[in-house]
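Handoff note, outgoing to incoming analyst
You'll be picking up this chain. Sequence as last confirmed:
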Amino acid sequence: MGVALLIGSFILLLLLRVPIALTLAISSLITGLYMQLDLAAIIQRMISGVNSFSLIAIPFFILAGEIMNEGGISRRLINLANVIIGKIRGGLALVNVMTSTLFGGISGSALADVSSLGSVLIPMMRKQGYDNDYAVSVTTASATQGVIIPPSHNMIIYSTAAGGVSVGALFMGGIVPGVILGLALLILTYAIAVKRNYPKGEPVKREEIPKIVREGILGLLTAVIIMGGIISGYFTATESAAIGALYAFIITFFVYKDIPISQFKVILYRTFRTLSMVMFLIAASSAFGWLLALLKVPAMATDFILTISPNDITTLLLINLILLLLGMVMDMAPLILITTPILLPIAVGIGMDPIHFGVMLVLNLAIGLVTPPVGSVLFIGSAIGKVPIEKAARSMLPFYGVLIAVLLLVTFVPSLVMFLPQLLGK
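Most recent structure output, in case you need it:
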């Protein structure tokens, strides 16, 4: 009865469109009252859920992304990508994918990626003769790289939900899959561009190249500082995030100078607003997860899945299917917090490393961000491109194929994820 009440109230509140964080908190309190638990214990679980040193990295990553997004980094990365691959057939579409790869390493957010780059690149592609729905699908599909390529605050959320898995190792584990995903999207984008005879990009004037490269590299150094500090062992993930935010502040306000220093107040406001939502979500999910464990839901889920098939391959395919379906109807962060305590023990039980599972989980849920009916990234891309969501989803079909193929590759070839963490001893 406790399980039915916890899950049932959660689903009911979701259907009533109660915000997800409140849904988790209310479901936990209702179930706690039914089980005659001391409500102070639930509140303590919520507090302990956010009382983690590794979570301090999240506000710094959000702040760095907000600063660079507001300060014109997206335009400079577009110019840098255009210098590198913009001259070939379908050049602007390829620039779109490559810019998402570069920007993802700074913002760590698919939503930030599609919002900032899409508002620039989708109108540019439409003006150069690309189909509008194709421009939207390229932009939204490539934005999924933002949650895989480090730094990604979703990896930090997973680390917390998994009981303290190394954030540095998760960052390292996401590099190779992120690069493979970027290359796969580049190949598909080029093939479609050739088939549809999309235009070549306009050549960049030679005298402009040094400035474009210099400004683009200065922006990319934010990600280099963060990852370099973690890989070298000089900084923890939290310290690297703080230094990266400081560097982003200096570059944006004292080198690029596209916005006045007074704009920093607006950036801080947006950062704190986002942070408050994330932290409340983590707190509420901690109480919800504690009740799931108390009611032995992970054990029941394990028994159910292993009953269907004892085969490891079938089990992994079933876990992927569950995550893909859930990703279609819920956002990434709450799903990480809810599903990790349930599915991680199953994955570990069949020999999967928690780092490998974390990268697979995040990539899975990234696909959900671009899949209807609740694909938030796809909705934003459609709104920017003024394309009906149904038309955008149809245009996404070949990109879904690539995303699923990379997901299966990551799932069944563990060395793609584990190579760098093992090599660097993370």
